[in-house]
Write a structure and sequence with these properties.
Helix content: 55-70%
Strand content: 5-15%
Largest sheet: 3 strands, antiparallel
Shape: flat
Radius of gyration: 24 Å
Number of helices: 12
Distance between the termini: 85 Å
Oligomer: single chain
Length: 242
């Protein structure tokens, strides 16, 4: 009796799997038809592109997974995100001398748009994040750190752990942080705070202002609005660490 129930259960399970597979194939076919019909809008409209990516994700399709195949050939998304990745790298390299390899997603977005020109295909922050995730897979130091309601984009292979991340988040509002603020805000001992700040200085991600009133301030150029509004030379950067 048990054997019959088990056999019946196996048959039902196989039927359900077959039905689900058929539904997924139908959905995928409809998605391909939709993509063919709306490929120009998917290419040109960032919001439409986000919605299309979400539709793909529901059935486990990643249009960026391969440079070849239906999705790449039909939509050209592989080339689009490859070119966007190159532009992201170019912006990050150009600014590395003054921000140490950290830049806000907002500033990166503005600079990428400026570099593309007003007649180029529009790009959203979601597009940037998808391109950065692809760069991250390549293992060249790229990653994103959540800060406030946005992200810092890391473009150097510096080792940043959770301690470094929470200090960056603490500095987000003012652009700088002090040892006392870390001790009071995070309830850390002085040694722990100094260890994190020393690492950020060593990696070029922070600048030390030892002449500040009260106590030394550790500035994060990626978060310092006055610095992001103009180009800073390496000579100016060296003057920030007396």
């Amino acid at each position: 009796m048990k054997a019959k129930y088990k056999e019946r259960g196996t048959v039902l399970a196989e039927d359900q799997i077959a039905q689900m597979s058929k539904q997924l194939e139908t959905f995928k076919s409809n998605l391909e038809e939709f993509a063919s019909k709306h490929k120009q809008e998917i290419r040109k409209n960032p919001l439409f592109r986000v919605q299309f990516q979400e539709m793909c994700a529901t059935i486990g399709v990643d249009p960026l997974a391969s440079g070849k195949g239906f999705w790449s050939e039909m939509l050209g998304v592989g080339d689009f995100y490859y070119e966007l990745g190159v532009q992201i790298i170019e912006v990050c390299l150009a600014l590395k001398h003054r921000n140490g390899g950290l830049i806000t997603l907002d500033e990166l977005h503005q600079r990428v748009l400026k570099g593309r020109g007003k007649y180029a295909q529009d790009v959203s922050q979601d597009d940037l994040m998808r391109a950065i995730k692809k760069l991250k897979v390549m293992g060249n130091g790229f990653g994103m750190i959540p800060v406030g309601g946005s992200y810092l984009v890391q473009s150097v292979p510096a080792e940043l752990n959770m301690d470094h991340t929470v200090v960056l988040q603490l500095a987000e509002k003012k652009g700088y942080v002090t040892v006392s603020e870390i001790k009071d805000g995070l309830k850390w001992k002085k040694e722990r705070a100094c260890h994190v700040l020393d690492h950020l200085l060593k990696e070029g991600l922070a600048w030390l202002d030892s002449q500040a009133a009260g106590e030394a301030q550790y500035w994060l150029p990626a978060l310092f609005s006055e610095l992001t509004s103009r180009d800073v030379t390496p000579e100016e950067a060296s003057q920030m660490t007396p």
